[in-house]
Amino acid sequence: MNSHLQKHMGEPPCQCHLCPAAFAYNYELERHVRSHTGERPFSCIQCNASYSQKGALGVHMRRHNGERPYPCLHCKASFVRKCSLTEHIRLHTGERPFSCVHCNASFSHKNSLVKHIRTHTRERPFLCIQCNASFSYKSSLDVHMRSHSGERPYRCLHCKASFLVKDRLDVHMRSHTGERPFSCEQCNASFSRKDSLVRHVRAHTRERRFFCVHCNASFLRKANLEKHIRAHKAERPFSCVHCNASFVTERRLIAHKRTHAGERLFGCVYCGAFFARKGNLTEHIRTHTGERPFSCVHCNASFTRKQQLMNHMSRRHEKKP
Fold it and tell me: What's the predicted TM-score (pTM) here?
């Protein structure tokens, strides 16, 4: 009764000893303190995932069960959580009810507004108790805490890969399914990742934003410029601990290490074949799907591999002196 009256009187009795936050009820305080401590007492019995709130575990279990009880009346989408459906419906209605007091921005999700406001205030309220790191978002703190614990809760059902964040798992799963949701509007190419589409579009526009200071070379991607500069310096900074091999990029080193371990992490969902490198799996899947994502801008030819397209361009379309 006293806590109920205090809520009416604006006197929250439960004060956090780690920050200025205060709450009307003790259970709210306990839940909040877990955002500081990183405690996740609610564990999934089917995988290694754990959560700070019981409700979050319940939502997670629906993903195992395939349960999506909240369908959209405007399209075929359905959702695990009611709040996700509410937010989704705003995509249909165009409603953006959450407005920033610092600028003209408005948002369909309250969380998006809260995150946006921190770009104005520079607030970083989520603190790591094991080091001095601080974060604007709780999700960023959660991911950071896994770097201390070594936890990788998002596991692939098709191979041994595991990830710190769900987004990385989602992208990885496309290497098994062959899904490529990001399509180019100028040709038939499609991609599993948005950043790959952005790089591809630059190839159409010939936008080369990254310039070498040692020569006249320019590149579509910063990573390609960095590799090019190492060629000037003869620099191969990524060395194998098992042999004398060294590499210009870390990705090449990782792929090389799998030849020592005999690891073949990337499995095909169509035939069960396994590959040491993700790129090899991607190329293999195209033999099942018939996909030819590399299209010539001069004729109707298309290819399963980028190198095949480059060879075609040099043989058929390169200007003769």
Answer: 0.35
Centroid of chain to Cα 262: 28
CA atoms of 282 and 160, how far apart (whole Å)? 17
- The tens digit of pLDDT for each residue in 144-183 reads 888 888 888 888 888 888 888 888 888 888 888 888 888 8
Report the sign of the C-alpha dihedral through residues 72, 76, 80, 85, in that order. negative
Say if residue 52 is exposed, middle or buried (CB neighbours under 10 Å; 0-12, 13-18, 19+): buried
Classified as helix, coil or strand, 69 is coil
- Give 281: exposed, middle or buried? Use CB within 10 Å, 0-12, 13-18, 19+: buried
Domains in the chain: ranges and CATH = 1-30 (no CATH), 59-94 (3.30.160.60)
DSSP code, position 316: I
Contact 230, 246 (CB under 8 A): no
What's the pLDDT at 321? 46
Pair 210, 225: CB distance under 8 Å = yes
Place of tokens 């799963």: 173
**Among the listed residues 71, 110, 79, 72, the one whose alpha carbon sits nearest the alpha carbon of residue 93:** 72
- The 3-state DSSP class for residue 72 equals coil
Interacting residues of 280 by C-beta distance below 8 A, sequence separation 6+: 266
Residue 302 has pLDDT above 80, yes or no: yes
User: Which residues does residue 267 pair with via DSSP β-bridges, in sequence order?
Assistant: 274
Q: What is the band of 263 on the pLDDT scale with cuts at 50, 70, 90?
A: low
